[in-house]
Amino acid sequence: MSAYQPFPRRLKWSDAPLTGGVIAVSCGVYLLMAVQAAQRVGLSAAITDPLQDPQNLGWKLMLMGGYMKAYDEGWRVLTAAVVHLNLTHLVLNCIFLALFGRPLERNLGSAVMAGLALTSAAGGAGASLLMHPEAPMGGASTIAYGMMALLLGLQWTHRDQLGATLVLVVLNFGFTLTTPGISLWGHVGGFVAGLAVFAVVRSAGNRRHQAARRCLALGVVSVLAAGAYGVFGLGATSIPLS
C-alpha cells in the first residue's frame, strides 16, 4: 500500500466522483424536501428545517425502525444516509465528506469508497436499530465517521500525521456525546464499519482490484444484513410507529 497523503495541494472533484455523488444526492434530496415543505410551512422554515412538515419526503427516507418492521422498508438503511434534518446538518456533513472523502478516494479508488459508503451507512443504521431502535436517524455522518476511521487506520499504518486526525475524531465524538439529538450509535456504527473497511484494505496490500472487490462485497453484505435486521429482527411491539 502506497503512503497516504491526507491533504494534497491539488485535488480535483474529478478525482473523487463517488464522494461528489454522495454530496450531490444529499443536496438534491434536501432541495426536494425544502420544495415540498414550502407549500405547507413557508419558504424560510422549509429552507432551514423542512421536517417541520409532517408529510415531508424526509420522513419517508429516514431510518425509522417501526416503519421498517411494519412495512418491510429495509431500504431505509441506505436512504437514511442521504436525508438531513436541517440546513446546518447538511452543510456540516458535506464539509466533512469533502474533507475526508476526496483524498481517500484519490488514493484508494472509487470502488473502495463505494464499499466504505455502503458499509458505513449500514453499520450506522444497524447500530442505531440495535441500541436505540425507536429513535429516527438520518444523515451522511455515518459515512463521514467511516471515512475518519479509514483515514485514521491508514495514517496509523504509515505513521503519517496521525495526531491531527485523532484530534478530529475525539472532537467529533465529544460533540456527539454533548449535543442532544445526535445519534451516538449511528456514529459509532459508522466508525466501526470504517475500521472494518480499513482491515479489508490492509489485508489486500497493494492489490487494488482485490481490495475493491472485497470492500464492495462487504458493503453489499452489510446493507442486506442491516436491512434484514430492521425488517425481521426487531421486536414486533417494541417500536412505536408514530
TrEMBL record:
Gene3D superfamilies according to UniProt: Rhomboid-like
GO molecular function, one term: serine-type endopeptidase activity
Membrane topology: Multi-pass membrane protein
Keyword DNA repair: no
Claim: Hydrolase is one of the keywords in the record: yes
Matches recorded under InterPro entries: Peptidase_S54_rhomboid_dom, Rhomboid-like_sf, Rhomboid_protease_S54
Name of the protein described by the UniProt record: Rhomboid family intramembrane serine protease
Organism of this sequence: Corynebacterium heidelbergense
Classification of source organism: Bacteria, Bacillati, Actinomycetota, Actinomycetes, Mycobacteriales
